[in-house]
Amino acid sequence: xxxxxTNSPHPDDDAEVSLTGETTLQQGDTSGLRTFESAFFDAxxxxxxDEGQVFAIRLAVEEAIANxxxxxxxxxxxxxxxxxxxxTESDLAISIEDEGTGxxxxxxxxxxxxxxxxxxxxxxxxxxxxxxxxxNVIPPGNxxxxxxxxxx
Amino acid sequence: xxxxxAGLRVSDQNGITRVEFIEQNILDEANIQQIGEALGExxxxxxxxxxxISFRDVAHLSSAALGALITVSNRVKSKNGELHLSDIDPKIxxxxxxxxxxxxxxxxxxxxxxxxxxx
Lengths: 152, 119
Prior knowledge:
The complex is a heterodimer.
Chain A (H helix, E strand, L loop, with lengths): L19 E7 L3 H17 L4 H22 L7 E8 L3 E7 L26 H8 L2 E5 L4 E7 L3
Antiparallel strand pairs in A: 1-2, 2-3, 3-5, 4-5
Helix pairs in contact in A: 2-3
Chain B lengths: L7 E6 L2 E6 L3 E2 L2 H16 L5 E5 L5 E2 L1 H16 L3 E5 L3 H9 L7 E3 L2 H6 L3
Parallel strand pairs in B: 2-4, 3-5, 4-6, 6-7
Antiparallel strand pairs in B: 1-2
Helix pairs in contact in B: 1-2
């Protein structure tokens, strides 16, 4: 939020995120991320999504963006994560793309196996799959497309 | 790392270290790292670490936060200490169940039950 409410450094500040949009998030810009997210979650609520549905979507979107910054962009402050979303009353489609070289989702070990329970990483993708209706990792793996169906 | 600047409230109750989160959301990667460091220092300072982490006001957390908790659990185990979790919102508890971390952690409904569970 800009201090005086005008001349915002982020073009999306103070504006309602529309039901469709494209947002570029800069590595390390926490306030830019929070600005996008709060407007995005507001747009979901205004479209009739209930608290539990917003919780599920929020969890998956947080994980996908965090993965993009941490694993995809490897923390490089010069890189960005691009989010494209489309909200309708019946479903949400969202794509999250980083500037990394991608990954093979098959190579992520199952974190719920007994032998892997104590490994502190590798749960992001499984949480996205658990909370969204559809999750596709697009080769080479630097873009994730997710869909949440309200009636599912 | 000062626990409070990491967003933690840490207190001692009859030899049990009680930990609470000041913020509702445990999502920010830098903050999660600070939480991990602060709790690591708490554990390192004790011969027999006994920790009760309450999630009373926590509304959102990420897999990175789960990762930090697993690291805390591993450190407590390596010192033969005890870790219990309590007051987890049903929606957050679901995340522990999906990831099967409800098998790794000892989870209690209330702080009182958590305190009573220490051996």
